[in-house]
């Protein structure tokens, strides 16, 4: 139950990538992902892989975090490989299994797609590992700002997200406490069918909701007491200033994207 | 200095408040006239439902009076456009330390009120560091709140208020959910601020030992003030306290029981030390 829930697996640090402004990091990732889809040759893709590994070295992320981050896509990757192996035709027949054949074009394309997928996940992982969920939220909130024109309260949405993150550990702690309290009175969360288990969760979820609503009420009061007003202008302790380094990073990824198109890599 | 001492921070005039939709029940606050001066440490004593918390919320403009008025530094809390000034002058600490920390780190939480005041980032940074140093939170600035102890959480909340440079701090049973160490931690912090910064404190409690720390006690019952005086007067008046289902300090209660058994003790015993001294005089060791 515990430890399994974590948002983005942020890894505290002070590296170059930790210090980049999220307002630059997010669009840079988008551009890199676009580049990944633009490249069509193995050498170019391998260059990208080498690049992402170098970046992980620079961010001082231990190797096991990469493996952990890749685990969720293992089955998708295997499934994609399977599909390509058996259903893409062309080239030399490598393997024959009854009516099914594995041909070289399928093998190459399968490997290519998987490599692309892995690289894609690794780049995204670099972002979430080096950016706190909070600054990521503020970074994304910046790009939501234009929606403010059509009446979406973007500042408030960011505040809601930030408070949700603040309360995740508190609520996890509380649910564990409730669970122990229920177990000590004979509740059973472990055995039975999936429906039975879901039903057994009701005495856990109801008090959790009640308490969450009470917390929300008290928190709203505390925020108001400290001068929070909807729609009022606020400043921030951590102003995000976009530095020359930030712009340079954005320029580099743009050049990469342009090059991949121009040279048809 | 004498002029400073009598500066009135909070004044209530014939203050009344009834919760909406509760016409049959008596008002929660029923006509309170109260003045709090700069540097005063006021304890509000009363049983549950006596109107302590409602009164506190009225002082901070979280509730708006049904009748009468509250003036904070001369500003009435009904003036909606100046309510920010009231809240900045009168910060509030709540009972549950978890439900008043807004941000994901200590420093961001201390900054929350200042961000609402729309101060420039450099000024926020300066004040956060200064207040954190003052309350011994510097080493915790980057910590997420769920890794703090109860006492540290309450001190973070106090720091967040203090950073707004208030004239008064309102506390609604701030130690009720803390362990003894956290309790001591919070009380000492507040007492120190009260002494050194002439910060007025209004402390809601039903713990007589905490009320004894104040320099004035106001006792509430059913939304009215029934007693107002020094801790030495109020907390030794066991007839009054027991009538309101309240208790005196341990020493006062014990002295009362000893007097009933015929021991000749003065009635003004408040602290343990006073009791010990009186006992040693009345029964000299042979």
Notes on the protein architecture:
The complex is a heterodimer of chains A (265) and B (286). Chain A has two domains: 16-144 and 240-262, no CATH class; 154-225, no CATH class. Chain A is built from eleven helices and two strands; from the N terminus they run H-H-H-H-H-E-E-H-H-H-H-H-H. Chain A has helices spanning 16-19, 22-38, 42-58, 63-70, 74-87, 104-130, 133-144, 154-184, 194-200, 202-225, 244-262, and strands at residues 93-97, 100-103. Chain B has one domain: Rossmann fold, CATH 3.40.50. The model of chain B has no long low-confidence stretch (mean pLDDT 89). In chain B, 48% of the residues are buried. In chain B, strands 6-7-8-3-9-10 form a six-stranded mixed sheet, sandwiched between helices. In chain B, helix 4 (106-116) crosses helix 5 (121-134), helix 6 runs parallel beside helix 7 (180-196) and helix 11 packs parallel to helix 12 (272-282). Chain A binds chain B through residues 132, 134, 162-163, 165-166, 169-170, 173, 214-215, 218-219, 221-229, 232-239, and chain B through 60, 62, 84, 87-88, 91-92, 94, 96, 98-104, 107-108, 111-121, 124-125, 128, 144-146, 160-161, 164.
